[in-house]
Amino acid sequence: MNLIKYQAFIKVVEMKSITKAAQSMGYSQPGISHMLDSLEKEVGFPLLIRSKDAIRTTDEGEQLLYYCRQIIKNSNDFQETVDAINGLLSGSIHIGAYNSTLLSSVPALIAKFCRAYSKINISVQEYSHSDLAHSLINGNLDLAFMSPPTPNKYEFRPLFHDTYCVIMSHDHPLAAHDKIPVKKLNGCDFIMPMDGCDDIVNQIMREYPFTPHITFHTASDAAGIAMAKENLGVYVTSTLQLTKLPDGAIAKEFAEDLYRVIGICLRSFKHASPAAKEFVKLAEQTAKNM
After folding, report:
1. What's one GO-annotated cellular component (predicted)?
2. How many whole angstroms separate alpha carbon 240 and alpha carbon 119?
3. Residue 80 confidence (pLDDT)
4. Which of 58, 68, 89, 140 is 20 to 30 A from residue 221's alpha carbon, by CA?
């Protein structure tokens, strides 16, 4: 089986350009086009719709994309396992994570792993809450730093608790409280994350319903915290975000015990590549010492 054709198909879809895919893979544009034509002849139907402005998959191509990724992943896992048996741990790991986890302990963990396993290539991509699980299921990622709910039939290995808090201006009326009862947010001017962003507020509302006065919507924690600093409302986030808390803004924990569990989610630890297994082991060992 000629795997380079599958790799070319995946790369063209990811980069939406034959020219860019050719440059990335070190081939000529006609060479990549020939691989795609060969793959389409092999399967018996078109995989891509080529237009002047962009390239996209056909419905059939979209269905096969997942399996092409699995073919490449299984081939890589096979070679990694052979290397591991021979005492030469190598390979690659594709990791997804929330913005908040990339502001805390995850970068240091990745750096520690790279120092210990220099032959393993690590790629990290930041995702919104809604996109992270989707990318894991589609095979774009080997593992993800996330919190439940996780995809069905995927394994979740907890690492640490991430406490929720309320960000506000230092002269906000709630600043006088040591801790904030959720009921105090009823009618309070409130900065709400946009749909698809972090799901913390919705998680709290499911357990402790409240009705705030929503004044603004934001797509990032940085914007929400900046607006809270200017007394435009309060903003609910996790303590992982407090590394970038500006002067003039303060954080208060909830009176209720509100937190999420951050961990590593992957399809199966038992069937993960040797490289991914070593990464998970290091993450769990590091979390115990936090």
Report:
1. cytosol
2. 30
3. 78
4. 140
Q: Residue 87: what pLDDT?
A: 61
Q: Is domain 1-87 classified as CATH 3.30.930.10?
A: no
What radius of gyration, in Å, describes the C-alpha atoms of the chain?
Answer: 23
| pLDDT of 129 over the 80 cut | no
Long-range contacts of 15-24 (CB under 8 A, 24+ apart): 16/54, 16/55, 16/56, 17/54, 17/55, 18/50, 18/55
CA 258, CA 163: separation in Å to the nearest integer? 6
The pLDDT of residue 107 is above 80: yes
Closest CA to 221 of 248, 203, 194, 187: 194
Q: How far apart are the first and last CA of the chain?
A: 46
What's the whole-model pTM score? 0.71
Same fold, 1-87 and 161-260: no
